[in-house]
Amino acid sequence: MKKLYNRKRKHLIEVLNTEFGNEFKIKGEVAGLHIVAHFYNVKFTESLINKVFEENIKVYPIQQYAIKNTLEYDH
What we know:
This protein is about 35% helix and about 10% strand. It contains two helices and two strands, in the order αββα.
């Protein structure tokens, strides 16, 4: 399973690079099944998250999991 998940994660990162170029930054690229991606100039509103979810992609704004509501994740 580890090899399968690794291939899927690498594919996701390749697609993000193709579609968004330098418009995002990945943190925790090798940290298991999930990645943290910061998209510059994109505000993940509930409406946008719902549209993304309709495409079978799950997006979870990291601020809802942060102990302190800071912008440190924006870098």
